[in-house]
């Protein structure tokens, strides 16, 4: 099947004949293809225009980055560009590493034309599916629920219920990917404004001029709008200023004026537009630092930060991880027509001790990758060694450090170990002693005695009293 247009593929290989061969095959399929002989040329091409997909040779001679290093740089620029790796004989292990680092798939040289075409098609399909899911999610009238039952998740739910009915502006802070936009959507959905739109806007990557048009719209002939801005679209509803600290100073001043005056003019226009909008903002940066550095207006901060809401990072609510994992498995499997998988106890434990710097979004991406790449029959559990290497490595690195306990006599060292081990296990099982005892292979009553002797009796859950 020929693909008409719009798909732009970048082929990076230091061998001219392979490069041309791959380009020729893909062009015959109707794709538009650009080529690069090394990583520098590749990065220049990507910066000039974002490709729909990259085909990267793993081993490239002549200086510059190799394919795997290039893959990391590309994904730093844009994690959504799918990459297919080309590996030579004997480099399968490296190709597997590339997949763990986020490559979509790999093709072994010498390869069959059909295999190349099939992998490219699959990668493009998956990417467009993801884009569509993202679009649907951003349009969804009813947001996904807030998953999790940790004390932090419960507090967040009760805060949402409290702040939603009021009309006050809200500033949601929390690390990237922790769920700030989800919380904003939930506030909108349970507020009296739910019948009108929730409109998110992010300033990332926009020039101040473009952002002005996005925020306030643009006026065409005879005072008629050529483009409606988000302030107008959110009339009666909620405007979500995502990562508000990314707003350039010019836009900060204009937003402040709208908040004070409740009116604005469209770009290129003279007519006042009046709106009734509730503004919810989010930040993953410490705004007091941004204010001190002169990057964020203090008067705007006070206008926006009427009710502060903090969304904790995932490492502060590890008790939610098991539930989130199950939720993502169910959702992603259903959305992408993939078989559901179960996780072995050790795989789940590894996910529960990982730091998750990218928070819930990173956990979600890892689950999606696991479901897509999982080998073996769907009835076989996914084990810890099938998880991405950085997750497995950080789990072992977090274990009791020998340099800390080496200075202790055995009895005290054992106590340090038992204390850390048992408290982590209990947190992992949401404070449930029976499940903890079952997993660690101890009688429930013996575990109770042990916790008491270690001074840890308080961390068990209430319903678990003996
Ligand atoms: N408690 C939760 N239950 C279910 N899904 C969640 C939860 N928290 C976050 N998510 C999901 O994780 C992803 C990231 O969340 P979201 O976009 O709200 O984070 P964010 O803090 O706004 O991120 P950023 O700072 O990068 O804009 C989304 O897919 C969201 O639906």
UniProtKB/TrEMBL annotation:
It comes from the Bacteria. One of its GO terms (molecular function) is ATP binding. Keywords: Activator, ATP-binding, DNA-binding, Nucleotide-binding, Phosphoprotein, Transcription, Transcription regulation, Two-component regulatory system. Residues 146-372 form the Sigma-54 factor interaction domain. The keyword Transcription regulation applies. The modification 4-aspartylphosphate is found at residue 57. Residues 8-124 form the Response regulatory domain. Gene3D superfamilies: 1.10.8.60, 3.40.50.2300, Homeodomain-like, P-loop containing nucleotide triphosphate hydrolases. PROSITE patterns: RESPONSE_REGULATORY, SIGMA54_INTERACT_2, SIGMA54_INTERACT_3, SIGMA54_INTERACT_4. Coiled coil: none annotated. InterPro entries: AAA+_ATPase, AAA_lid_NorR, CheY-like_superfamily, Homeodomain-like_sf, HTH_Fis, P-loop_NTPase, Sig_transdc_resp-reg_receiver, Sigma_54_int. GO terms for biological process: phosphorelay signal transduction system; regulation of DNA-templated transcription. This is ATPase AAA. It comes from Asticcacaulis benevestitus DSM 16100 = ATCC BAA-896.
